[in-house]
Amino acid sequence: xxxxxxxxxxxxxxxxxxxxxxxxxxxxxxxxxxxxxxxxxxxxxxxxxxxxxxxxxxxxxxxxxxxxxxxxxxxxxxxxxxxxxxxxxxxxxxxxxxxxxxxxxxxxxxxxxxxxxxxxxxxxxxxxxxxxxxxxxxxxxxxxxxxxxxxxxxxxxxxxxxxxxxxxxxxxxxxxxxxxxxxxxxxxxxxxxxxxxxxxxxxxxxxxxxxxxxxxxxxxxxxxxxxxxxxxxxxxxxxxxxxxxxxxxxxxxxxxxxxxxxxxxxxxxxxxxxxxxxxxxxxxxxxxxxxxxxxxxxxxxxxxxxxxxxxxxxxxxxxxxxxxxxxxxxxxxxxxxxxxxxxxxxxxxxxxxxxxxxxxxxxxxxxxxxxxxxxxxxxxxxxxxxxxxxxxxxxxxxxxxxxxxxxx
Amino acid sequence: xxxxxxxxxxxxxxxxxxxxxxxxxxxxxxxxxxxxxxxxxxxxxxxxxxxxxxxxxxxxxxxxxxxxxxxxxxxxxxxxxxxxxxxxxxxxxxxxxxxxxxxxxxxxxxxxxxxxxxxxxxxxxxxxxxxxxxxxxxxxxxxxxxxxxxxxxxxxxxxxxxxxxxxxxxxxxxxxxxxxxxxxxxxxxxxxxxxxxxxxxxxxxxxxxxxxxxxxxxxxxxxxxxxxxxxxxxxxxxxxxxxxxxxxxxxxxxxxxxxxxxxxxxxxxxxxxxxxxxxxxxxxxxxxxxxxxxxxxxxxxxxxxxxxxxxxxxxxxxxxxxxxxxxxxxxxxxxxxxxxxxxxxxxxxxxxxxxxxxxxxxxxxxxxxxxxxxxxxxxxxxxxxxxxxxxxxxxxxxxxxxxxxxxx
Lengths: 408, 408
Description:
Chain A is built from twelve helices and 15 strands. Chain A is an alpha+beta fold. In chain A, a hairpin with a 2-residue loop joins strand 6 (168-176) and strand 7 (179-188). Chains A, B: Heterotetramer of two alpha and two beta chains. Chains A, B: It holds the Pfam family ArgJ.
């Protein structure tokens, strides 16, 4: 939870220029929930008629705000909607006080914005198990409402950071029937990142028009190929939330539009990769391409077994093309594999085929490749057509420093 | 695979005095498979009439010796049996060459010892994916046969070490019908340790008499409560093998004898704990007691989710009573849990109850407790009678050093 971490070596050069999304305005403020001298609350105000889809952690110990959002999702937003997020405290495992905090905050936002309380979503991220000082947040709601602007999405991205070393944003624009539709999203997340969820906190906004049910089904499908395919440390957060808001302000209906779906997937993929690039202690960005599995689901199981293996991740950190550890991770994954059909490559260097080291393999070639910042590991099972790609980072002293050497 | 590691701070003061097990003799030799200036092959020769039970890794990429042992297990040993183990090379992912190496070795041992080839078991531990230089081992078989002695079990324990920082042994004796029955075992293992297996390499010998099928069923049942309840890094080896040999030389039939089963469990528990105490980079030994789960299986799932969580393990390394991470690990485990019924203690310090921090909890008390070498984490789910205990170690810079900083 330190704010003094050095910027990740895998971070993009700078925060991207994000297009304005009509129909949504943002503000941030410094409420002092835990951090001092920085913003820690963001408010997004959505126009009447917005559709909101979401995916959330499946953790059985998920936080009070997650439970509240899940209960509220699905209804229309004919009178508008709002999202309020704080960093510094996750309001998770806070007993019945957790729900009280959520109710106090949503009620206060409703009073100031005149949006129905049932259309006010919240999220909290930070330390688990401490009561949320919601009064500090409530004291800032007038200031937030006064500061709302279409141009402040970057400020929102900064306010939701915890152990992140850089603010995360991505956008795409697409022409539909001669009109421009814009998508822009922000994310936070760095540790406690594992699949079966929708990463830490992600908010994506589009000015397209789409019914809530269609938007939800599009989101869930893309989420399975993006955020649910990343892992930093195999640990699943109690707060993971992803919300996609289609304001409809462009007047363009994007239902069933492939270009829109593809643009949305680009934004989600980019944001999910930025989370991996900010993985705690990460020095390498690793893409694991699995092909030839019996099913897509088997391919993903193998990919995540490799991506979550501490021995594979430390080998990558040590720039060691230790393919034996990849064999190990495939063997333990539980998905179908036949040792004697297996091929493994690092980038374009074929390391192993048919269950043994390739005759042309020279370890120097692979060792050279492992020095790069971005590593591609390819595994072919030789069994069928199932494929999946997952992304992770290496496991370094930096991870231990962040999580063991400092009290959080 | 370095031999220069400092002895684990959690190691026992010294190797225990092991009783002689009648009916089995041991030898070790320096074959130079990979390591220089140390022993790396051990031979155990078992008397006619011995029963052998075994459990092995379930990895789908398991090694050639493991496959060979699994195929041979079950038959009687009326003409005796032998076990030959090398360290330095695991003979895993070595294609059809792997089986050839096994055949060459077992055939050579059969020639020298006059034991049928089908009763000769082998194991190999060390680097994955390199051809086993079996000629170096075969060249030492005469020397091994000449050096056999009832008193050399400690030598055998030393010969099978890889990243281990200490040799592992344990024993028990029990009176059955006025006669003493002795059990003694050795183990190796330090990294790539995860459950669903029988840890790295474990050999246990008893002079009791028992039919193979009864011995196997006893072994499997105890294994589920001992070796299958430990984890160092959640990574499952391709070579894990545990063999239990009952020579019958005491003349005492231990079939169905509770005292024998209990003594055997003591030996297996002690050996499994020694493997955790030698976990790569370990500075803390952690026992996780889970009670109140819906089923025993759910309790074990929760326990292993906590034990395998990098965030819990780094918190222990940092002496941080970060119980929020335990809540997280329970939430993600997939087994049944109800946030509002959960209680968590560190040792005797009650930290959380009914889904929130306990009113009497003082973090200083827990922080003091976390400074100890041995930490007990207690979790009560409040749902039923299911319980399980699992063991692990912390995740430290030492683990990263062993697995990333040096090429293996």
